[in-house]
Inverse folding.
């Protein structure tokens, strides 16, 4: 368009050709710069895509590890509850026997209390469980506190 405008304005043809050549040169240089910018952008995009793919792999491994650890935790918690029930039954049996209170010294009661842990320590004092003791020994981080949402992966 600039070239056509230059021809319409008039003047010598040689001057017009020089102006047109300068416009073409300026356009060629702009195209070269844009091509270089495009090449740099493609290279940067390739680096970012590679980094994103590596991070996705790390995320997948981390999620798998969390899942494995949660399964281990569930199994360990189930085993703990099973052992606590057994210990509770033993303690209740000892406390119900007529010879249980006499046969067990204070030291033995404290050892049994220590073995029973905090959750069952109150069982030696009273056969029923104390809810205050149960609550005080709950894990600060339960498995329900850990969550991750896979719906954001699609973004």
């Amino acid at each position: 368009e600039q070239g056509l405008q230059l021809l319409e304005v008039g003047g010598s043809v040689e001057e017009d050709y020089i102006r047109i050549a300068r416009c073409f040169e300026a356009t060629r240089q702009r195209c070269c710069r844009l091509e270089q910018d495009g090449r740099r952008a493609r290279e940067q995009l390739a680096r970012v895509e590679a980094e994103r793919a590596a991070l996705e792999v790390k995320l997948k491994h981390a999620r798998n590890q969390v899942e494995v650890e949660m399964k281990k935790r569930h199994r360990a918690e189930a085993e703990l509850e099973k052992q606590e029930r057994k210990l509770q039954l033993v303690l209740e049996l000892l406390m119900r026997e007529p010879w249980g209170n006499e046969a067990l010294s204070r030291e033995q009661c404290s050892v049994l209390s220590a073995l029973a842990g905090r959750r069952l320590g109150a069982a030696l004092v009273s056969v029923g469980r104390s809810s205050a003791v149960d609550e005080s020994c709950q894990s600060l981080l339960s498995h329900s506190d850990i969550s991750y949402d896979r719906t954001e992966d699609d973004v």
Q: What stands out?
A: The chain has a mean pLDDT of 76. The helical segments are 2-9, 13-96, 100-103, 106-121, 131-136.
